[in-house]
Amino acid sequence: MPGESMDMTQLRSQVREELAFSGFEHPNREADLLLSAILQRSLGDIELDHLMGRDLASEDINRVLRATRSRARREPLQHLAGTAPCYGYDFQVGPGVFVPRPETELLIDFGLNFLRGREWQASQQQADAPLVADLGAGSGAIAVSIAASLPDARVIAYEGSPFALPWLVRNIRSLAPQVRVEYGDWHERIHADSTRRFTAILSNPPYVPAGDIPADPEVRLFDPEMALYSGSDGLDDIRRIAQTAAQLLLPGGLVAVEHTESQGSAVREIFSEAGLIEASTERDLTDRDRFSWARYPALPA
Ligand SMILES: C[S@@+](CC[C@H](N)C(=O)[O-])C[C@H]1O[C@@H](n2cnc3c(N)ncnc32)[C@H](O)[C@@H]1O
């Protein structure tokens, strides 16, 4: 009952029961993650509170029970906690914005390694601060992580969803205020300034084929459709990104895009057909194709 006094043991078992009843495969683990996220205590502290039979404030009990009802409807835990971690930064998230995934850290790391290397400067025969585009910035996971980790980079976050935009702006303000936002269809916005040439174009674009409805209810019900689907084979946006990269990258510049594990060879082909070189695919920790990259040819020495 809301407001009733409970200790951690009682609350934990009530959360476990409700999540088991609503069909979670691992309700005990889900319950602990929820308690940890809502009470902002580590999993170890939750266990300790249980062993010590710690009493909880009625306000905390009510918050946990409310979150349990939402979680039972498969609302993502990150929405209930209000934040999602990515690359060591906490991004504010909620309805209307794509929740950053751990896999995207691989793309961010790859982009940062490229930008920290000096090879691109030599190929571009210039020493300007690098100019980086994040196409489909969502919460800002890529743009903000790059800008916060590499303060001399000039980073532009392109986002077309009016529902994602407030989250993006909030995260930029608190984590990397130097990031510039361009709101609207990125394919139009990025070509609007014909003088801009990019050192790197990075993207975690929509790449799910239109007919492939995700099995995971958290994704199907709560990730925005605009963040997921991209034409019948899922590659419409990646084709357009390849064309854009071939037109707007500086010599030696990098384009890198995330995709599903089955799209690696198709994406490499798209990059090569657009005139980009060195098209390659990187794998994630489970050895699945995760993102592909290519470069714009360098100027002859
Ligand atoms: C898969 S989400 C990735 C978000 C974020 N970069 C991340 O990795 O967490 C794709 C994002 O692209 C945005 N988007 C999709 N098509 C777009 C378009 N044509 N113009 C601008 N943004 C677009 C969606 O709104 C969504 O925020």
Named once each, the bound ligands are: S-adenosylmethionine
Largest sheet: 7 strands, mixed
CATH architecture annotation of the largest domain:
3-Layer(aba) Sandwich
Distance between the termini: 74 Å
Shape: elongated
In CATH terms, the superfamily of the largest domain is Vaccinia Virus protein VP39
| Secondary structure category | alpha/beta
> What is the domain total for the residues?
2
Could you please say which CATH topology of the largest domain applies here? Rossmann fold
Instruction: Point out poorly predicted stretches.
Output: none
Number of strands: 9
Question: Can you write the helix and strand succession as a string?
Answer: HHHHHEEHHEHEHEHEHHHEHEE
Oligomerization status of the protein chains:
single chain
Mean pLDDT: 93
CATH class of the largest domain: Alpha Beta
Summarize the structure.
It contains 14 helices and nine strands. It has helices spanning 8-21, 27-39, 43-52, 58-72, 77-81, 104-116, 119-124, 141-149, 165-175, 186-192, 217-222, 225-228, 236-248, 264-273, and strands at residues 83-86, 89-92, 131-135, 154-159, 180-183, 198-203, 249-258, 277-283, 289-295. The model has no long low-confidence stretch (mean pLDDT 93).
Can you tell me about this structure?
There is one protein chain. The chain has a 7-stranded mixed beta sheet, sandwiched between helices. A two-stranded antiparallel sheet has the order 1-2. It folds into 2 domains: 8-73; 89-295, Rossmann fold (3-Layer(aba) Sandwich), CATH 3.40.50.150. The radius of gyration is 22 Å and the shape is elongated. With 301 residues, the protein is of the alpha/beta class. The chain is built from 14 helices and 9 strands. 40% of the residues are buried. The N and C termini lie far apart (74 Å). It has helices at residues 8-21, 27-39, 43-52, 58-72, 77-81, 104-116, 119-124, 141-149, 165-175, 186-192, 217-222, 225-228, 236-248, 264-273; strands spanning 83-86, 89-92, 131-135, 154-159, 180-183, 198-203, 249-258, 277-283, 289-295. Keywords: Methyltransferase, S-adenosyl-L-methionine, Transferase. It comes from Gulosibacter chungangensis. Residues 10-82 form the Release factor glutamine methyltransferase N-terminal domain. It is an enzyme of class 2 (transferase). It catalyses: L-glutaminyl-[peptide chain release factor] + S-adenosyl-L-methionine = N(5)-methyl-L-glutaminyl-[peptide chain release factor] + S-adenosyl-L-homocysteine + H(+).
